[in-house]
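Progress against Task 2.4 (sequence-to-structure conversion) is shown through the following example record, which the project officer requested during the mid-term review.
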Amino acid sequence: MGDGIREIFPGLLFIKGLTMSRKKHNTTQIIDKLRLVERMVAEGNTVEEAVAKISVSVQTYYRWKRKFDKMGKTEAKRLKNLETENARLKKLVAELSLQNDILKEVNEGNF
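Structure tokens generated for the chain above:
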């Protein structure tokens, strides 16, 4: 870790290899893990113990729960598809807007 972080958090120890690795989960994996945590909590484990067993942080668990808790797998897949399509359309709009601006400048002779 850089010395800048050590200046901000002087009491924090940085030990190589003891940080959580970042892993990208798809929506069905997230929903499966949420259900697994629910079962473990129902069996008497604490939320902290359950999320440690599925290798995510408590913060990540609650973020996932807020977003995906009431959602089924098919709804989650549909949401992901809609988000992907939305990103594609935003990119298309940006490209077309840029082309439109260029054509306006060329038409006005300001090139």
